[in-house]
């Protein structure tokens, strides 16, 4: 079990260089698990005992399984995570040429440890809008793209030219974080391609102005997407590390990878849902809805049409409830009977910076999921929600630990408070412990992947019966 869950995570990570690819991989796994894709643009014809999923913007995905004893007004037990990670995203006009180099202009996305992006072998991945057909038969397709080999690098400045660099490496995000794509001399061998309708050209007064993107980059993307450069209408691309995710360490106890925050929790919750609904009898006695919601844009505040701050969660709950009853009052009842586990990676104790943790709250690797607490509601955990999650751990003999930030340090936040306040659902904030959070290369423990998966799976299987035993607002 331990190796298989961890190795499955490695496969998921290596298939998911961007949020779009993470959704693509989640779709594949859900379909293999018997989940049916539905669309928010169409009417839903839902049935008890059946399993469904939908995507929004192809960067957010919600999957749910309806218990065979579900009736309208019953609650959903949900795990929420996010598909995005801090990264460098290509600018709308990415072409930069200076000093004899061709470079690619990027924007910083989220709060990354940007110094870790230097001297890494980088490539690009994301999505493109591609034109197909001609004249009256033109259509536009959405296609994911990923160039596998390293094509870019952000080189550091030699210490000989910056003698004080080891006293504090300060990155100017505008000037210093510009990847090198090629030298101008070599690029001359590959003459620019003149296309009037390509994303690489800007029509002005009937003529093409200088390209928005290097023709060399467009040619690489077109080759990868099996199209012509002038068929690329637009794209959302980001720089990606090419080093694969691995199980590592002297005892093979760690996972070294980018994007563990938060694809690790996304994967564990997704696998738990699929496995907790895999057999014919899985939903036999289930009175609620088992759901996983993987949102985009958590790293930048969740305020988008597909972020946790959007109505996507409320829309899903509303449409599920209304599929079984036209009584609009039942949605409010369903919300009060629901529960969200906000799953986002947590800060493990760092052996070189132990003073950064409060002495009684030092999450450690191999010690299970971390329940996050904050009196100022940066996390949505309270005594009732933490009890429920802790009780499930105790019943299954799973380790659990607690985290509170030091009073003299600011506290990060998650989708937990956003969903709790926006939708009104009881919420607990948890996460697997990790080091190097927001680095291009992070690390966590193999054991905690297993613990997280088992804890989430038990939550899906047992929440309904446990919640029925708890009395609070009666």
What does this structure look like?
- This protein has 474 residues and is α/β, with parallel strands linked by helices.
- It is built from 10 helices and 22 strands.
- The protein has helices at residues 2-14, 19-32, 184-188, 215-225, 260-275, 312-322, 329-336, 383-395, 415-423, 446-467; strands spanning 36-37, 51-56, 60-66, 76-82, 87-98, 101-109, 122-132, 139-146, 180-183, 202-204, 207-209, 232-241, 246-248, 254-257, 289-295, 339-343, 346-347, 369-372, 400-403, 426-431, 433-435, 442-445.
- The strands form 4 sheets. A 9-stranded mixed sheet has the order 1-2-3-15-4-16-20-18-19, sandwiched between helices. Strands 8-7-12-5-6-9 form a 6-stranded antiparallel sheet, with helices on both faces.
- A hairpin with a 2-residue loop joins strand 10 (202-204) and strand 11 (207-209).
- Helix 1 packs across helix 10.
- The protein is globular, with a radius of gyration of 24 Å.
Mean pLDDT, all residues: 93
Oligomer: single chain
The gross shape turns out to be globular
Question: Which structural class matches the secondary elements?
Answer: alpha/beta
How many strands? 22
Please compute the radius of gyration using only Cα atoms. Answer: 24 Å
For the largest beta sheet, what order do the strands appear in spatially? 1-2-3-15-4-16-20-18-19
- Kindly state the percentage of residues in helix: 25-40%
How large is the share of residues in beta strands? 25-35%
Largest sheet: 9 strands, mixed
pLDDT < 50 stretches: 193-197, 201-210
DSSP helical segment count: 10
Termini separation (Å)? Answer: 42 Å
